[in-house]
Write a structure and sequence with these properties.
The chain is of the alpha/beta class. The protein is built from 8 helices and 11 strands. Helix 7 packs antiparallel against helix 8. The protein starts with a strand and ends in a 17-residue tail after the last helix.
Length: 271
């Protein structure tokens, strides 16, 4: 049974429609969504309604959480004051734009999903705002997968798709017990684990404007990173028409990295 994993739609209804059509062409039997249905893009309500109407199992993204709980960011999240201003403007616009039923749907989304040996998160199992970048150190990467109890961890948040295999994982834990002079050492050898990042449907940052997602076959463990062309100028025009920052349209048209995050990808901002 093939599954599709989508992430980071960000109110881009045109991209979502194109990806769903591509998924249908590939005879996929189940779709999972890694969150960030809203934010940056011009059509948050339409995106949420589409995902909800199709009963797609979905986890809560960082933007979804921020709309419900309030903006989760501190000064270290942004590379500049201008970027911070743009981020807050987009949050305010989205917060005012979404319908009550959209807000209710985002509020009830779980942080993680687990299906057989597969786990689905937005950023990491620890937090929606944590970046699991492809170059993150092997110990941290292995710990994140092991923490889910799964063999394959699907994530998004970075907007750049990748597959990382973690083989021959060795985790050594030393435990100092009260009243015991010797330190007990526990060694855990993990079988092959894998992190699969689905990239972004609605705001790709891999150098092209094409939407990205993943097709995965649990039986063969085959992974396909899909790119889908769509009418991105239409979304760019809608961004401008809605009064959102023009830089959002500029970076969408180029598929450029313009992430507003801390230098340390594992850093979690505190309210």
């Amino acid at each position: 049974m093939k599954i599709a994993v989508i992430s980071c739609i960000h109110g881009n209804y045109e991209a979502l429609n194109a990806v769903l059509s591509d998924i249908d062409d590939h005879k996929v039997e189940q779709i999972y969504c890694l969150g960030d249905l809203v934010g940056y893009g011009p059509h948050p309500n339409a995106v949420v309604e589409m995902v909800r109407s199709l009963n797609i199992p979905t986890v809560q993204g960082c933007w979804d959480e921020d709309i419900i709980e309030g903006l989760n960011a501190c000064e270290c999240s942004y590379p500049s004051i201008l970027a911070e201003q743009r981020g807050k403007l987009a949050h305010t616009w989205t917060d005012q734009e979404i319908h009550p039923e959209t807000r209710e749907f985002l509020a009830q989304l779980p942080m993680t999903l687990r299906v057989d040996n597969l786990a689905f998160v937005h950023g990491s199992p620890n937090n929606q705002h944590e970046y699991l970048l492809p170059e993150i150190d092997a110990f941290t990467a292995m710990e994140r997968v092991l923490g889910t109890g799964a063999d394959v961890l699907f994530c998004g948040h970075t907007h750049v798709p990748y597959v990382r295999d973690l083989s021959d994982g060795l985790v050594k834990v030393q435990v100092k017990r009260s009243g015991v002079s010797e330190t007990a050492t526990q060694i855990h050898v993990a079988p092959l684990k894998r992190i699969i990042n689905a990239g972004s449907v609605g705001e790709p940052r891999h150098g092209r404007p094409n939407a990205t997602y993943v097709i995965y076959d649990p039986e063969s463990a085959e992974v396909k990173l899909r790119e889908v062309e769509y009418d991105y100028p239409k979304t760019c025009a809608a961004i401008i028409d809605k009064g959102l920052p023009a830089i959002f349209a500029w970076r969408l048209a180029r598929g450029l990295e313009y992430a507003e995050r801390a230098e340390d990808p594992t850093h979690i901002c505190e309210r």
